[in-house]
Amino acid sequence: MIIPFHVREMLRRIKLRYDAEKTPQQLAPSDDDFTATRPSRKASPETVARFWERLKPRASEADQLQIADPATVQVAEIYGANIENFIGTVKLPVGIIGPLRLNGMNANGDFHVPLATTEAALVASYGRGAYAATQSGGISTAVLYEGVLRTPAFVFESLLQAGQFVDWVVSNIDMLKAAAESTTRHGELVSLEPFIDTNVVFLICRYTTGDAAGQNMVTIATDALCRAIADDCPIPIENWYIEGNFSGDKKASALGLVTGRGRKVSASVILSAKIVEKTLGTTVDAMLAYGQVANLGAHLSGQLGAQAHYANGLAAFYIATGQDAACVAESAMGVTRMESRGEDIFCSVTLPNILVGSVGGGTGLPSQTAALNILGLKGNGHGTALAEVAAATCLCGEISIVAAIAAGHFTRAHESLARHR
């Protein structure tokens, strides 16, 4: 049997760190005393100070001032609704790209887009794509579909009972819809689809959520729906769970790619050969040639969809505007297309799982409010426009990175803007 070189190397490194006496002691369970930090939603200058006392001497006063700076501590109460055991805020660099011109169904006009990131070269890259797109007349955008999923699971003794349960659910859909919607002013249950696996039934509950991302909204609504089922359904239920890990919540899934979770958005632009050469430093043919190889790589590696780096732009956009950053796990999935249009190039992205809101979540925090105000998309009536901006931002990143790799500039840009900055 052949042992791969990397396995031998890994074992060699482990053995170098191994000490026959100390290592077993290091890895053994410890029963040393400790004082638990209990979850607390109360946030005030006094609670912040008490938490920092616990962190000494490992954390210095200078560390405290970096996280619990006076401006943050002064408005500590604002943060209590968004976090437990509040000790301050972490500052991230925020840059802007734009103006990014959007000709959208919901987002229309020129936008400066704030992006929060520690990755040098990211804002420059997305900004270059935005410049090329705006020079070309702007990006067309549309929200194609809406619906945040929650998928409760019900366990029965047999397949027969699971089938009887589905029949009962279908017969009582109006009552279940009313139960779910009684918990929210803005949410609406728009579809309920049973999925059977022998004695387990998943209910795919899809909601529209107004201008909110709606994760908590749909959880609370689905809990009411499930309790109505538990109270009234004559079929014996062995167990039920609010989420059966079927919805794709905060994970990439085939279901999310096909049906969407959140807002499904498409964004597209046609770049002229002249703009590609002058602004992006490459040619249409070179971009298309690299795009073919990148598409093949996506298929061969088993990507869900085919795209270059949606996660970069989405993470920076989500953090800047107060979205749930963990949703990037499912949002950064979709399909990028680049096709010839005569001498020009058609570029598009479709993202089926954009989970953003202009209200709720972290959108009310001071810095995030400011970022949304920069966009002009803070508050009611702007949720769909915000989703279109997110998709258009991803398109800018796809254009820029494909052009950079096609032209052989990718490494040089990262050396000049990141490593040697």
Automatic annotation (TrEMBL):
It is an enzyme of class 1 (oxidoreductase). It comes from the Bacteria. One of its GO terms (biological process) is isoprenoid biosynthetic process. Keywords: NADP, Oxidoreductase. SUPFAM superfamilies: NAD-binding domain of HMG-CoA reductase, Substrate-binding domain of HMG-CoA reductase. Residues 22-46 are annotated as: Disordered. InterPro entries: HMG_CoA_Rdtase, HMG_CoA_Rdtase_cat_sf, HMG_CoA_Rdtase_CS, HMG_CoA_Rdtase_eu_arc, HMG_CoA_Rdtase_NAD(P)-bd_sf, HMG_CoA_Rdtase_sub-bd_dom_sf. One of its GO terms (molecular function) is hydroxymethylglutaryl-CoA reductase (NADPH) activity. The keyword Ligase does not apply. Its EC number is 1.1.1.34. PROSITE patterns: HMG_COA_REDUCTASE_2, HMG_COA_REDUCTASE_4. Pfam families: HMG-CoA_red. PANTHER family: 3-HYDROXY-3-METHYLGLUTARYL-COENZYME A REDUCTASE. Belongs to the HMG-CoA reductase family. This is hydroxymethylglutaryl-CoA reductase (NADPH). It comes from Roseovarius aestuarii.
